[in-house]
Design goal:
With about 350 residues, the protein is an all-alpha fold. The protein is about 70% helix and about 0% strand. The longest helix has 15 residues.
């Protein structure tokens, strides 16, 4: 039992009441931002949105509060509401490039690529007269549509915790625009946007890789090969550029010495890669170095006897190999049969016997 000292009761009452009488301590913008992220991470969506809205009011010239509110809504799969909110924000300040970019990012995250493309183009128009354009940057989710629509919470959190490799400045905006066009199925405008990104950032390996692969998908091997060569000037050990460039040269009967150098370089970097072994084998085949081609495809078929690409490459090799030995004749017959459990097992056993000699 506490012993009450006379005369101290009134003082104690004052002391106990004092904290509630003090004014509430306002959170700083940085503290509000972190509080919003923490609540979002805990899926306390109402609390997160409240913190981000306070942040927006506290710093009207910064877009991170808008990003926070928008992503809190996106995390709950409220895509339309999120897009409506960020669009209303940009309507109050239509020449704000960062707000336009936020709208584009939210639209892309929601799978609304037409809206995203319009906003990204608007950003590029605004940046043309902006002296700070080279440093212009707003972090975006690393989850791309349509994955972001399937995983809305993970995509929303990526805006705050994920890695965004998009470069700063208009080049990064052109990359966003290219992604939107390509997802819309508009290859020509997607390529044009990538070429604009490349013009601004000619040594960016990610841009060069994206551009080369798009050219490959559009079956423009000549341009794809030219971009792979540019990429190798920047990254001489880029395995994908070495391998893909070598395969393109083999397919077009181009510079076969360069193709062999690149394929062998890729094989030294990743000696167990089936794709690289296949490319090296195909280069050997095109160079009419049939023993090396046979060895490469035999190795692959012992690992994946049912893979049609490897079987087709072995068929092409066997069609020009002059060997008429019984084992080789048996292999020719077996490789022309449909793949299946029994055929695959027999093919693997036969190749093991042939390569063990």
């Amino acid at each position: 039992m506490f012993l009450m000292i006379p005369g101290r009761l009134a003082l104690l009452a004052v002391l106990l009441a004092a904290p509630s009488a003090l004014p509430a301590q306002e959170m700083s913008p940085d503290a509000l931002f972190q509080d919003g992220i923490n609540n979002l991470a805990a899926k306390k969506f109402a609390e997160a949105e409240a913190s981000f809205r306070k942040l927006r009011a506290a710093e009207p010239n910064n877009v991170r509060g808008v990003v926070g509110v928008g992503q809190t809504l996106m995390a709950q799969a409220k895509f339309g509401e999120a897009l409506q909110y960020v669009t209303a924000e940009v309507a109050r300040d239509p020449t704000n490039a960062k707000l336009n970019l936020v709208v584009g990012d939210v639209a892309a995250q929601a799978g609304q690529m037409e809206i995203a493309a319009v906003r990204f183009q608007r950003v590029l128009d605004l940046l043309r007269a902006d002296p700070n354009a080279p440093s212009f940057f707003v972090k975006r989710t690393s989850k791309r549509a349509p994955e972001s629509v399937k995983e809305p919470y993970a995509a929303a959190m990526d805006n705050f915790t994920g890695n965004d490799a998009t470069p700063a400045g208009p080049g990064g905006v052109y990359l966003r625009l290219a992604d939107a066009f390509l997802r819309m199925g508009d290859g020509p405008r997607g390529i044009a946007a990538l070429e604009n990104a490349r013009r601004l950032l000619p040594a960016d390996p990610a841009i060069l890789m994206d551009l080369a692969m798009v050219y490959e998908m559009t079956r423009d091997g000549t341009k794809a090969l030219a971009v792979y060569r540019d990429l190798l000037k920047v990254q001489p050990d880029n395995v994908a550029a070495l391998n893909n460039g070598a395969y393109l040269m083999a397919e077009s009967n181009g510079n076969m010495d360069e193709a062999l150098r690149n394929a062998m370089h890729a094989a030294r970097l990743q000696p167990q890669s089936p794709e690289i072994i296949d490319t090296l084998g195909w280069v050997y085949f095109r160079r009419k170095e049939l023993a090396d081609a046979f060895a490469a495809f035999a190795k692959l078929l012992q690992i994946s006897p049912g893979k049609q690409t490897y079987r087709d490459h072995m068929k092409a090799t066997l069609a020009v190999v002059p060997d008429k030995s019984p084992l080789m004749m048996e292999l020719r017959q077996m490789i022309n049969e449909p793949p299946g459990e029994e055929n695959n097992r027999a093919l693997t056993e036969l190749l093991a016997r042939m390569t063990a000699r």
